Structure formats: structure tokens, C-alpha cells
Amino acid sequence: MAESFILKDLLREKAEMFHVKLDETALERFDIYGKLLVEWNEKINLTAITDPEGVTIKHFLDSLTIFSYVDIPKGAKVIDVGTGAGFPGLGMLIARPDLDITLMDSTKKRLMVIENILENIGLSANVVHSRAEDAGQNKAFREQYDFSTARAVTNLRDLAEYCLPFIKVDGSFIPMKSAKAQEEIAEGKKAIHVLGGQIIKQDTFELLDCGERTIINIKKISSTPAKYPRPSAKIAKNPIK
Q: CA 63 to CA 155: how far, in whole Å?
């Protein structure tokens, strides 16, 4: 049997703390994911975290914490905006293959890596090469999802404009934040309201010894006005305040 890259026992044990049960198939898929992530990272800049423990906790476990704080029903349609190397969307899919996951990114090389990983772990997802502001104005994507999520992308105010347009009314946008989440929430409340969202819950916790995390549940209570999302240059120049 080939030697594992990730710390499987640690991932299994700590995932259970966040109410996620990982069977041997899921753990093996995470291991393949970890190995390929590090291999590809030598050719394409995907992550600064490449040690086994860092990948296990800071990428994989971190991606799974969403399930502890948000009830995501079987078969839900989820879009991971700015997925990068697949966090959290690909990790969510490994833990919950029943989910209908879309992994969206504006960088084709990253998506090529994700497609390679999906092929090697025997799972399928919708892999979309697009800028969020373009896809958010496209009927094929706009208000088509039960959940959108994003991790380590941009500040909450601007992120809401990128992510809320994808969500159906009564769905939720679930941003995953680390430090300074409360400042971002205060700064982003007006934009969230304008875009049709309402913060209904926020959970702050420690990710083992890796610092503070906050998962925010923003419910879509009304359709996003047609003019949003705007081009990224406009979002940067004239944020919703």
C-alpha cells in the first residue's frame, strides 16, 4: 500500500469534531488530492501551504467546517466562487458526493488542475472558467444555486456583490472568513442588504491551533437588482456603501 501524504487519522478525528464523518473512500480521495496538489504546485502557483499537516488542517479540515454550522441538504446545488485550488468546494464534494457542486475560477490553469484531481479521485463537478461578475449576469448561473461560498477571496462587502447574484431567493451565501471578520461584517451590511441578503447567523471558532475562523450565513431574502454584479473595476472604484 502506498504511503499516505495527508494525516488521515488526524483528519478523520478532527472532522468528527465538526460533525463530519469521513469513510475510508473519502480519506483516500483527500490523500490523492493532497499529493496532486503538491505535485501541481511545483508547476503552477496554487498554495503556500504544502506540508502534510498544513494541507490536512488548513486546507482540508478548514473546507469541511462549513458543514458544522450550515445545514446543506442532500443534493443541494452549491457554487464555490473563486475556487482556486478547490477550497472549499472540492473538499465539500469529497465529504458529500451527493452535492451538485460547481467550481468557478477565472484562471484556466487552476481549473485544469481541478479537472485532473477530479479524474483521479473518481468524482465529477461542474468546472466553470469565468469571472464571477460575468457569470453573475448570465441566466445560466444567475439565481440558480441553493448556496454560494467563497474562501480567502476578497472583503465581504465586495464578495457579496460577486456571490449573492448566484443564489436563489431563500438560498444562502456562506462566506468563510478568518481574522477581522467582524470589521468586514460591519463594512458589508449595507451592500448585503442592497443585494437582497440578510445576515442570519455567524459562528466564530478556533481551527485547532491555526487561528480564528468565522462562517457567516447570509440568507437571500429578495432578488438581486439587475445591475449587480457590476464589472470588477466598478466594484473596486465605487463599492456599495
A: 18
